[in-house]
Structure formats: C-alpha cells, structure tokens
TrEMBL record:
Stretches assigned to coiled coil: none
Signal peptide start-end: none
GO cellular component, one term: cytosol
SUPFAM superfamilies in the record: FMN-binding split barrel (SSF50475)
Domain Pyridoxamine 5'-phosphate oxidase N-terminal: 5-132
Protein name listed in UniProt: Pyridoxamine 5'-phosphate oxidase N-terminal domain-containing protein
Keyword Oxidoreductase among UniProt keywords: yes
Entry annotated with the keyword Oxidoreductase: yes
InterPro entries: F420H2_bilvrd_red/Heme_oxyg, Pyridox_Oxase_N, Split_barrel_FMN-bd
Assigned keywords, A-Z: Oxidoreductase
Domain of life: Archaea
Protein source organism: Methanosarcina barkeri (strain Fusaro / DSM 804)
MF (Gene Ontology): coenzyme F420 binding; oxidoreductase activity, acting on the CH-CH group of donors
PANTHER family in alphabetical order: HEME OXYGENASE HI_0854-RELATED
Length: 146
C-alpha cells in the first residue's frame, strides 16, 4: 500500500504547478509564499531571488512546510498534499542543470527568460507527507514518512 500511495503522491506533484510554502522568520513570524515548482520524486525545487525573505528565513531555519491543492468548491472532492521537510540551497552544478531541464519541460516560458545572477534554486526534501482525499471520506488523510 505504501508504494501505491507514494506513486499517487509523485503523480500529484508532477500534475500541479504551484505550492504554498510556509517559512518562519528569525523573529518567529510565519510567512506563506506561493511559488511555481518542479519535482523529482517527492523532492521539489523552487527558483527565487537570493535576497528574498523566504531565503533569509530558510538560511536561519531550514524546516519548512507546504501545501499543494485543488481549487474546488466541493468539500467532498478535496484532494491535497501537506508536506513537512527541510530546505536547502542547491549549489551542485549538475543538479542545477538537471533541475533547469525539468523546469523548462514543465514551464516552457522559462526557456525564454534571460539568466539572472540573483536567482537561486531551493531544494525541499520531504520528511512527512500527508495525502488528503475527501472523496474517500470527509477529513480522510494518509501519512507517509520518508
């Protein structure tokens, strides 16, 4: 069952475009950031400017959480992911190239964007994933530890 659920999670990640990333400021204030992402298995990557608050927050505290969900008014059809993990800045050149290729495949507009020396790639490795599917039962969710 766990492998089937992991496959559902990987498919859900690859079929969606945006996540809502939660970070905590050095002062303890929570912040939410809507971001485009790409995934490789259960690991997600987001590109951002290196001077953003989210990067400052991650440098101080790499523990993050994010959600990916549907925009459906029917509460009994809710499907979503709730993920807790650790974020890090990608510095490995081969990983950056590979993720860049995944990014262009998912978001073709990225191929037309000029290189930005202020841009960095953040990698989020999950520790716990909750898969919500209210079509099974209202409030239904399954936990996967990674």
């Amino acid at each position: 069952m766990a492998e089937k659920l992991k496959d559902k999670i990987y498919e859900y990640l690859s079929d969606h475009y945006y996540l809502n990333l939660a970070t905590v400021s050095p002062q303890g204030r929570p912040m939410a950031h809507t971001m485009a992402y790409v995934s490789k298995g259960a690991t997600v990557y987001v590109a951002t400017n290196k001077n953003t608050r989210k990067v400052q927050n991650i440098v101080q505290n790499p523990h993050v959480a994010y959600t990916i969900d549907e925009d459906d008014p029917d509460w009994f059809e809710i499907q979503a992911l709730q993920i807790e993990g650790k974020a890090s800045i990608v510095t490995d050149e081969s990983e950056l190239r590979e993720v860049g290729e995944i990014m262009v495949a998912k978001f073709p507009v990225a191929a037309d964007m000029p290189p930005d020396p202020e841009s960095i790639m953040i990698k989020i490795e999950p520790e716990v994933i909750y898969y919500l599917d209210y079509s099974v039962n209202f409030g239904y969710r399954e936990r996967v530890n990674l």
